[in-house]
Design a protein that fits this description.
Helix content of chain A: 25-40%
CATH class of the largest domain in chain A: Alpha Beta
Order of helices and strands of chain A: EHEHHEHEHEEEHEHEHEHEEHHEEH
CATH superfamily of the largest domain in chain A: Isopropylmalate Dehydrogenase
Oligomer: homodimer
Bound molecules: 3-isopropylmalic acid
CATH topology of the largest domain in chain A: Isopropylmalate Dehydrogenase
Structural class of chain A: alpha/beta
Number of helices of chain A: 12
Number of domains of chain A: 2
Largest sheet of chain A: 10 strands, mixed
Distance between the termini of chain A: 23 Å
Strand order of the largest sheet of chain A: 2-1-3-12-11-4-5-10-8-9
Radius of gyration of chain A: 20 Å
Chain lengths: 364, 364
Amino acid sequence: KTPIKLLVLPGDGVGPEIMQEANRVLAWLEKNRGVTFDLTYDLVGGASLAEYGVPIRDEVIEKAWASDAVLFGSVGDPKWTHVGFDKRPEIAILKLRQELGLFANLRPAKVFDALVDASTLRPEVVRGLDIMIVRETVGGIYFGEPRGIETLADGSRRGINTEVYTTGEIERVARVAFDLARKRSNRVCSVEKCNVMESGLLWKEVVTDVHGREFKDVELSHMLADNCAMQLVRNPRQFDVLVTGNLFGDLLSDLASMLTGSLGMLPSATLGAVQDNGKRPALYEPIHGSAPDIAGQGVANPIAQILSLAMLLRYSLDMQAEADLIEQAVANVLASGLRTADIMSEGMARVGTAVMGEAIVREL
Amino acid sequence: KTPIKLLVLPGDGVGPEIMQEANRVLAWLEKNRGVTFDLTYDLVGGASLAEYGVPIRDEVIEKAWASDAVLFGSVGDPKWTHVGFDKRPEIAILKLRQELGLFANLRPAKVFDALVDASTLRPEVVRGLDIMIVRETVGGIYFGEPRGIETLADGSRRGINTEVYTTGEIERVARVAFDLARKRSNRVCSVEKCNVMESGLLWKEVVTDVHGREFKDVELSHMLADNCAMQLVRNPRQFDVLVTGNLFGDLLSDLASMLTGSLGMLPSATLGAVQDNGKRPALYEPIHGSAPDIAGQGVANPIAQILSLAMLLRYSLDMQAEADLIEQAVANVLASGLRTADIMSEGMARVGTAVMGEAIVREL
Ligand SMILES: CC(C)[C@H](C(=O)O)[C@@H](O)C(=O)O
Ligand SMILES: CC(C)[C@H](C(=O)O)[C@@H](O)C(=O)O
C-alpha cells in the first residue's frame, strides 16, 4: 500500500512533547492496522522564527500541499510578543489556513462523562454536551482589505480592518455545517450580527438560500452573536452544529470549549476545498495553545493532540474504525482514573504526558 | 430647586410596564428627598415605527439633548423583523448612542448573594462576582464606512463592514475605564485581538499610553478577546474593570451578564462627553431586551429598570446617597424572599411586576 504522507508540525511550547504521544499512536496504527505513514517534520511558529527568522517558510506550505494532511501542535511563544505584527508565531497558522484555503474549522465541544466535574458550569447544565462549531477561517475581518494603522494630519492615528464575506465563501462553509449536521442531530444554528452588520445580513441570507436549495431536511435556526454568547452559558445543550464567521467563531468556539472545563481534551480540524486531484487539504490541531508555562516539564495533557489525530483519520483518511478505536481508548483510560494535572480531581491517579500516552496505546 | 429634566422612553415589549415601577421610585424621591422631576415621555423602537413609520424621530433626539438624562426601557418587536435594515427598532438605540455621542457603555455584571443559585455556573465560581464592563459604543464596526452589500459582475454578492478606531476614540473610553477602576478595585483589563487586527493593535497601544501618562496608579493588563471569553467562564472573578471595543463588548458583556443568571437584575449606563455647558448626555437602560413573549402580562422583573434609575442618580445627578438607598432596598427585598418569575426558586414568594415595584418603594 502507498504510504500516507503526513506533515508533522509540532511548533512551540508543549507542542513537541504532546506530538510524541501522537507518534506512539501512529506507530501503533502502522503495526496493527496495516497502514504505513510517511512522516515529514518541520518547524513553525517561534521555533521557525528562531531558526529561520520567519514564522513559517514557503517550503513548509509546499510540503503541506504535498501531504495527505497536516498534524499540527501549537504555536505561540512569549519571547516573540514584542517583535512586531509580521513576526508573530501565530502567522504560521494564519498563513497555513490562507495558503491552503482551509476555510472550515471544525471544533467539537464535548464533555466526557468522567470529566463533567472539570467544568465551572453545573453538571446538570453540561452533562452530555456535544456541540460542533463550524467556523469560517479564511475570510472575514482576519484577511479583509483595507487594513492597517495610518497617521492622520493632526498626528493622531487610525486603525482599520475590513470584514468582507462573499456569497461563495458563505455557501461553502454553510455546506460543511449542513453536511455535518446530517451525521449528528440534524440541526444547524447560524450566527451573525445582522441587526448591525450588512456582512451579517448577507451571511444570514446566503445560509438561508443554501438551506432552501440543498438541505431542507436539516433544521436551520439563526441567532445573533451576542445572544449566542449568552445561550452558550445559559443552556449550551440546545445546540447541535453552529456555523459562523471567522471572528465570532474565534470567540464563540473558545467560549464553548471552556464550558467543558478541559481544553486539554479538545481537538480540531480545519478543512479546505476538494482539489481536482481529489485531495482535500486539511490541518488537525489541539484547540489549546502552546502553554509555555508548563512546556518541557512532561506534564502537558496529550489527549487533544491524540484526538486531533483521530479526527485526521476520520476526515482525511476515512478510517472511521480507527478513529472510533482511539476515541474509545481515550474514554476508557479516563474511566480508569488516569489524569494529567490539568484535569486532575480527587481520588484519581495523576500522571505525566508520557504515561498518559502509553496508557492510551496500551488500551488500543 | 430647578426640576431635573428626564426624557423617559419606555419603548417596546415589557418596557412600558417595568418603566411604571421606576416611576414609583421617582415619585418616592420627589416626596421624600426634596427633588422634583420634569418628565417628558416619548415613543421609540417598534412603538415609534407603528405611530410614525421611523424607529426614532429627530425630535426625540432633540428632547434628549434638552434633558439631564434619558431613562430608556427596551426596544425590539418581532413584528418589525422583516421590514428591512433601516426600519429595525434597534436603530432607536444605535441612533441615540451616535447622535448624543454616548461612547461609554457601563455594564456591571454583579451576582446578588440571594441569587447565586440562579447562575448556571457553580456557586463557588460566581459568588460575589462584581465586574464592570466598559464598552465603546459609537465607533468600531457598528458605524465604520464603507459598509453595505454589493453585487459583483458574476451576480454573486459581497457584504462589507469596516472596523475603525482613532486615537481619540480609544483614549476617551480608556479614561472612563481607568476612572471607574479607581473607585473599585483599581484594575483594568483591556481586551482586543491585536494578534490579528491592526485596529486592536492600535487599541492596545493607545490604552497603554493613556495608562502611562495619566493612570499609573491603576493596574493595567491586556487580554485577547477569545481568551477573555474563556476566562469569563473559567474564573470571572479575576476581573475588575474590562474595557473593550463595540463588537467585542457586545458579546463579552452579554456573556458576563449571563454568568449572573439573572438578566432581569442588571442595569446599564451609556455616557457621552461633558459639553461646554457642563452637561453630560447619558442614557440608562436595563440590559435585558423587550421580552415580547411575556409583555403585557405583568410578570416582568422591574429591578433592572429600577437599578438603571439608581445608576442615573449616581452618574448623572451625583445623588450617591439616593442611589445607595435604592440598591440597598432591592437587596433587602430579595433577601426577604420576593421573586419575579425569571428569578424564582424553591421556597421563595413569587410576585408580579407591580408587587415587586411596590415592595421596593415600601422598603425605601
Ligand atoms: C492564533 C490565532 C491567530 C488564532 C485565531 O485567532 O484564529 C487562534 O486564536 C485560533 O482560534 O485558532
Ligand atoms: C440592539 C443592538 C443593536 C444592541 C447592540 O448590538 O449594541 C444590543 O445588543 C446592545 O448590546 O445594546
